[in-house]
Amino acid sequence: MRDTRESRLLLVLLIAIAFALITVDIRGGEDSPVDGARQAAATVFGPIENGVSGAVDPIGNAVSAIRESGDRHDRLAELERENAALKAELGSDDRNHSRLRQLDRMLKIAGQGQYGIKGAQVIAIGAAQGFSWTITIDVGANDGIERDMTVLNGDGLVGRVTTVGPNTATVLLASDPDFTVGTRMEATDELGFASGQGDRPLRVELLNGKAEVEKGDRLVTFGSQADKPFVPGVPVGVVSRVDPSGGGLTRTLSVTPFVSFSKLDVVGVVVKAPEKDPRDTVLPEKSEPKPTPTVTVTVTPSAPADGQYQQEQ
Which InterPro entries does the entry link to (predicted)? Predict the structure, then answer.
């Protein structure tokens, strides 16, 4: 329709009629004279609205699903964080259980040897290549720690204290090449000196070049004058190799230490020496070797077949 004067007048008239109907409908309330017309319009246009709603609802549902998906994602992330925290807590519990086991073994050794010990935790380890084999523990002078005190754990001899600070101390490990401790053989009482060799077994020089030693024999610390730097009776290790005796004044042994120096965690500093030498009482009980089962196989010759027996006849 072209934009003419008549069309403009018609548009103004339609707008005026629409406003008049709206006014009458509002003032009429529930008795509005146009209520019937509204119901007729609803009957005509209702199916169209439902169709449009059906077309629009999937979009709305999709938006809602995205929002709920975001909520679920946040919940999953929260659950993952809770699971991670739980795993960390369980790991911490496992570590605490391990420390309790170490502490229990260490207290057992202290009780058997009558050592007065101060418990400590390893908080640092020194470089093992080109430097001394040392650890740092979280006790020091404020805890009664002094230089040249023996350090042990639940397995045996760890080392000796070399440097003491107010709240920490440095321990020279028995595996260090500069470390030397007097030793005594179990049962035979043969004396010697053990020296560290890094990650290799300890080297022990027995004072008696003709001493009878076998693989599997065990050694403990002999002790020092005034119990410094070593108290007596602390387990050192097990003989793993005996060098052939060459008629020398000493005899050389390779000794595998009881302590694993790469797995140190809980240790004890001996702050009070025993009143008497515990000798071999601190050594763990020897485990009896399990007998190797012997399997005997008996072969029973089978009887020849009938045909074979007749042929041989």
Answer: Cell/Rod_1 (IPR042177), Cell/Rod_MreC_2 (IPR042175), MreC (IPR007221), MreC_beta-barrel_core (IPR055342)
Q: Using DSSP bridges, classify how beta strands 169-173 and 157-164 pair: parallel, antiparallel or unpaired.
A: antiparallel
Domains of the chain from N-terminus onward: 100-272 (2.40.10.340)
CB 261 within 8 A of CB 147: no
Asked if pLDDT for residue 260 goes beyond 50, the answer is yes
Helix (H) or strand (E) holding 27, with range, is: helix 5-28
Burial (0-12, 13-18, 19+ Cβ within 10 Å), 208:
middle
Q: Which of 267, 253, 113 is nearest to 193 (CA)?
A: 253
Which single residue is written with the structure tokens 């070049």?
Answer: 209
Count the residues in the chain. 313
For the chain, list the strands marked E by DSSP.
116-125, 134-137, 150-152, 157-164, 169-173, 180-185, 191-197, 200-206, 218-221, 235-242, 251-257, 266-272
Q: Which DSSP symbol is given to 209?
A: T
Confidence of residue 81 (pLDDT cuts 50, 70, 90): confident
Who wins on pLDDT, 150 or 56?
150
Instruction: Tell me the two tokens of residue 172.
Output: 């020279």
Are the C-beta atoms of 197 and 203 separated by less than 8 Å? yes
Reported as half-sphere exposure (CB side, CA atoms, 13 A), residue 3 has a value of 0
d(CA 115, CA 124): 25
Q: Between 286 and 112, whose confidence is greater?
A: 112
pLDDT tens per residue across span 203-253: 999 999 889 999 999 999 999 999 999 999 999 999 999 988 766 778 899
Predicted TM-score (pTM) of the model is 0.64
- Report the alpha-carbon distance of residue 187 to residue 239 in Å, rounded: 14
pLDDT digits (tens, 9 = 90+) for 11-53: 666 666 665 655 555 555 555 555 555 455 444 444 444 444 4
CA distance 22 to 26: 6
Amino acid code (one letter) for 69: S
